[in-house]
Fold each of these.
Amino acid sequence: MEGHGTDMRKWSLARAGIRRLLLAGACCLALLAVLGMAGSAQPSRQPAVPVPISQTCSWLARPAEGSTSDIAELAGQAGLNARFVPALNLWELTCAGGTSGADAFALRRLAESGAFEWLVPNRRVVIAAEPNDPGYTAQWNMRIIQAPAAWDITTGSRQVVIAILDTGISLSHPDLQANLWQNEDEIAGNGIDDDGNGYVDDRWGWNFVASSPNPDDDHWHGTHVAGIAGAVGNNAIGVAGTAWQVQLMAVKFLDRNGQGSFLGMLQAMRYAADNGARILNLSVSVDGDLTAEERRLLDEAVNYVKDRGAVMIAASGNAGASTPAYPARYPDIMAIGASTSSDERWWLSNYGPGLDLLAPGAGIY
């Protein structure tokens, strides 16, 4: 086996040029309560927000209570495909073919049809921006948080499940394999939803990008986050995680470009909470403010996770802004900013009201 530096550069657990707030530990959010499919013909209404062409050519719509409209037919008339997500009581409307924009007038007619309570663009969620200063070659972060003193008390517990909601986790990484969460109630590869959780063959987690049971990392970001949180310690391989013993649940909702959707984030959070995660880590950010409807969805999500005894910690964002980015800005989510090896706030880390604390986040190995 190669030495620490070579091994970790080889496996992407710590690459030169990687810096940011990748929390070695926790976070928590969750997902929406099951409200059931609604419906009632309502008087024609204006959409809750303007209906512009979405960045992702995708919209989220909450069905109106008691509505009897044929939403799939209405969507088709607007040049959209429609998919109902029962767990979230949401319709996902996407451009046919996934590439061309839908007609704005047709979208407005759809929003005003009375079939929906509201309709909003399914906005993009991305990994928090990376600092570009030179990389460190040692884990200064463990020393500055006095991890060795903590390890004298405990090196973690296999009873704790940390969900990494990100680009996935490398399932073959030698410094992570022993700590990967497995769904013990699922038999991999038999094509059956053995545990009845709605996800077939999810032995190793779930991939919401491809709707598949393979959450392997095709980027690197999620693997790096997982390593900081829970790389196996004292094994003469690579680096030591903050917790040497832990279970790391791979929940992939970001693609190979580090991008995902608001809906994908909500689905990932619900999956983690439903499958036993006590901590949910989201090192991602959403640009700008949320609409009232998006805040309602996030509120439902947070309450869902809290009801299951889980917590969430999210990156405050790395834009140098004077307020944390969502989802960290939400009051019941712990917002963590990035600090440097000199124990000061990294200059691009978001700060201001709502920031809960700083943790090592620039130049993490």
Amino acid sequence: MSPVSSSPRRSPIPTGAPHPRLSRDPDRPRPRTKPRPRAPPIGQSPPPGERPPLPRQRLSRTAQALSTLSSLPDVTRLGGGRSGMKLLTHNLLSSHVRGLRPGGGFPLQIQASEVRVRPVPFNAAFVARLVPRLRWAALLEAAESLGHPSELPPEPAPDYEGDESFLRRVHHILLEVEVLEGVLQCPDSGRRFPISRGIPNMLLSEEEA
């Protein structure tokens, strides 16, 4: 004879009825999530017992130019291995620290502690398309600061598209001379942007942007 259970039997839930633990009263308001704390104004400390939020960093327009440059297939397919900061990249960069005079953030001064020359396949058509977009005086200054003062003429040749010798020299300065370690300095504000492992850090804090 089987023992009789003393616990009462639960009545089965009718088919189609909502489970009592999963059902929700439609008139019951939803719980509100806790709002995210905002950063206090500059110079003002957060309330006691409240953890201050991490300082937000804003991506400057020059860093956005870097991402645009890296998306160009003609650049990304040249060479192999870890790449340094090319002078083509430097020619696109400028400082956007708050309070600069118009045009005061360009060109950034290069203070390099490690420079490398890495062979890159030559593409004459690609280099010829770059020449009219370059800020030539800034390129000459950058080349001189890295020890390549006499490889480029004071001005681009009038018929540069068919001048392979000129295009090869521009190619060498733009794409083969790389900065691996160093600093970029804003000529107006003196703000220093470090170059580490070939990548210039152009991030600005919220107070600087």
Amino acid sequence: MSERNPSRPVEPSVANAKEPSIERLFSLFSHELYTRITSLQGALWLLRRQPLNDRPEVGQLLDLAAESADHLTRAIENILDWYGLSHGRDFLFLQPGDGADALRQAVQTLQPLADERQIRISLDILESIPLVTDERYLRRAFRGLLHNAIKFSPRDGQIWVTVTIVPSEEGPGAAIALFSIADRGVGIAREDIGRLFKPFQQIDSSDTREYGGLGLELAICHEIIRQHGGRIHVESVVGRGSTFYVALPMDVSRVL
């Protein structure tokens, strides 16, 4: 959910109709489940730092509980973010910002997870990429795409993050920053690509899905990029990996 900044808000894609039952559910997630799960995370964090008195099984159980609590927290955050963005509770406030900083910070946040899975992240971007952006939400979108790449990459794999500047059809001097995040993971079948950015869609819908999640991460990314006036698409080959592209209009008034 975004901080309120004194600049231009962007309207969500779904009308903010009166939906009493959905509103009550949103309130439940916000004030009951999320608050309680974060309290549980804090308690587990403290317990994991206590002496175990030669009882490694207790440490293993605490690690499992903490991992489950983290997973549930991410799921609740995704529900809150998706509902807030798509139903008009949260707005993007666009102002001059730096896409390079947003991307670097997203990589920094996900680096520990990549290190844990021995996945290398190769970053090749410009020093500065002037955009009209809500940097907090843009970081959120980049984190979602990076998390997705890590999630579906093999252990000891690699992810390539690059940015190129391409001319825009909007007029003379206009330009687009084209961000790409490429992995060599499991890949996506052609017939499934159309469902990727729809909410609550899972490519693997079997009862024994190898990869968890609610199917909201990419839908949130898509909505954030849309509200930036940008586009997102993917190219993928099953068994060879995927490349996600994000095209955002540059703020040419700040380009020397």
